[in-house]
Amino acid sequence: MPDNLYETPDPQIDVDGVKIDLRVKGSGRPLLFLQGIESWIRDETFSDELAKQFKVYLPQNPGFGHSELPDDFYNIGDFANFYLTMLDELDLRDVVVVGTSFGGWIAAELASRSCERLGAVVLANPFGIRISDDPLRRDIKDIYAMSQAEVADHFYHDPEANRRDVTQLPDHTLVAIARSRETMCLFGWEPYMHNPSLKRWLKRINVPTLVLWGEGDKLMSTDYGRAYAGLIPNSTFRTIEEAGHYPHVERPADFVRHIIAFADEPAAQMRISA
Amino acid sequence: MEVFHFTEQAYPDAWKHDLDSLRNTIPSSYCEPEKAREIYRNAQDGWLLCDELGINIAFNEHHSSATCLSASPEVTMSIMARMTNNVQILPIGFQIANRPNLVLLAEQIAMADVISGGRIQTGFVKGAPYELSPANSNPGRYLERFWEGVDLITKALSTHDGPFNYEGKHYHYRQVNVWPRAWQNPHPPVWIPAQSPGSTIEIARKGYNLAVFLAGRNLKKLMDLYKQETVAAGFPSPGPEKFGYLCLCAVAEDEAEAHRRAYDIHGYLRTTGIIAEAFVNPPGYQSPENNAKWLRKGQLRGRAGTFFPATKKDGTVINQAQASIEDLVDANIFFVGTPDQVYDQICEFNDHVGGVGNFVMMFDGGELPHADMIDSIRLFGDKVLPRLKDRYPNASVVQAAE
Description:
The complex is a heterodimer of chains A (274) and B (402). With 274 residues, chain A is an alpha/beta fold. Chain A contains 9 helices and 8 strands. Chain A is globular and about 45 Å long. The termini of chain A are far apart. In chain B, strands 1, 2, 3, 4, 7, 8, 9, 12 and 13 form a 9-stranded parallel beta sheet that branches.
C-alpha cells in the first residue's frame, strides 16, 4: 500500500498565471506524467523508477488536486494548450509525455496539437475517443451510474487489493480527491469521456507512440485500446497483464519496464539529433 | 394567508418491485398507462375542487421516478391554466439548470400566464442531485447555470421592446423575443426553494420569494436570516407573502381517521429517499469541502437520503422517513387532525416562525385513497381555510414580483 497519499501540499508553480501542484523527480530526459483522478494515489514505485532515467514532472492537472482551475477552461483542449504552454515556459525539449486515463486523453489532445517539443508519447488506458457508431452502445462504461464499489470493480484488476480506506486521510487529500472528481466530471460528462473530433486529429501525432493497456480494465475493452493505437501513425500497442485501468498503480514495475524499453528504441530516441 | 395543495402524483403500485431504487433505474414496465392516467386525473380532479374552495395549486418536477409522475410541470401548468378559474398555479418548480432551452420555458410560462389570466407563479428549483442524470445535465458549474438561468428567464419575460442579445457563460441566444408577453408585469412571481443559510442569503439578496421544504421550526432561522439580508440589500422589509412553507396535511372529522390518512401520506417521506447510490451525489453537485466530509464519513451506501432530520419542540432530532405521525406533528412537518386541531397547529407554528404567507401542503401522498384526499381537502377548505384567512388577512402573495 502506498505510503504517500498526497497528505501534504506539493510545491506549486505558476504556468500562464495558473498555480498548479508540480513535483519534479530525478534528472535526464524530461518526462511529463499526466494522470487522472487517481493522482492522489502515490505509490512511488513507478515515479522513482522512472526518475532513475528521466527528469519526471508530475503535475496535478488544473482543477485536480489543489491546482487552480481557470474559470474560462471550457473543454479538454484547454488542458492540452495549458501543458503545451507549460512546456514552452519550462523550455523542455524531446519530452516523453506519459498519460494515464483522463491524463492519457489530455496527452493525446496535446500531441495531436503539436509534437514540436515531444520525443515520444505513451498513452495508458486513455479516455478520449469513441469507436462505436451505434448510439446505443457504450465504449466506456458510465461511472456516474455506478456505486463507489462498482467503480472500484471496474477500475481495478484486483479491486480488493486496491480498496483504500479514505476515512482516516487528512482534509488535504480528501479535498484533492473531491476536486479531481469534480473537474474530471465537468470535462468528461458530455460527450462522455471523449472528444468527437479527436479521432480525426490523432493522425497528426508524428512522434513514436506507445499505447499501453491494462488488460483488466473493465471500463473499456482491449479492442478500444487497439483501435486507439490504430489511429496513431507510428504507434505500438502493448498489453499489461493483471492490471486494470491504472496499470501504473497495479503493475508499476511492468509499466515502467515498458516505457523504458520503448524510450530506448532507436525510433523513440532524440528525434532532433545533431 | 394563502394555502396551496401540492401533490407529487406518486405511483405506489411500483414500490414493491424495487427496494433499492424508486428513481433513475426503475423500469417503466412497472408503470401501467391506465393506472397512470387515473393518478393524473385524480390529482387534477383534486385541484378542480381546490379551485372551488380557494385553495391554490402546486406541483413539481421529478424524472425517471415511481414517486412522482410529474416529469413535465409545463403539462400540468397548461392543463390547469385552462381548467381552473380562480386560484394561483404554482409549479415549484422547474429544474432550470437541467433544461436545454430556457427561452422556450419562458414562452411556456408566458403562454400559461396569459391563458390563466395572470394566475401563474413560477418556482425555479436547483433540482435534487439524482435529477441530473435523466437530463444528462453536468453537475459541474451547476449553480452557475441555475442563477444565470433565473436571470435569463426573468429578463426574457420582462423585455417587451423587441429582441435582445444574450451571450452569457452558459446560455447563448442572440435574438430573445418572447411572445406572447406574460399577463403579469414585469413577470410572474418567482419562488426559489432553499434549505441552507447560504442559499437563503442568495435568494434574499436577489429579492426572490423564499420557499422552504419540511424544515419545521428551523424555518424561523431561515426566515429571520432572509429578512435581515433583504433589508441589507435595500429591499423593503419582507412581509409574510415573501415566504412559503412546504409541509404535509391530513384532515378528517375524526382524529383517528386523520392519523390513518396521515400514515398513507407519509408514504411519500418513507419512499422519496430510496435512490441508487450512484445518483445521490454526482461529482461537483456539492462543494469539494462538503464532499470531503462525505468521504470522511464513508458515505458509500446503497440507499441515500433516508435521513431527513427534523427537530421536535423538546429538541429531539428525528428522521422524517421513519418518525411517527405524532412526532412529525410535534416537529411541524405534518399538520394532522380534526379541522380544529389542524387550525390550532398551523396557528401555533405560524406565530412561532413569524408569519408565513403561503402554506404549500401535501394533502396527498403514498397510497392515500382518492376519496380520502378529496374529503381532507374539502374539510380544510370549508372549516380551516376561512378561519386562517380571518386570522391572517394581509398575507396574499397574488402580485407580480419585483
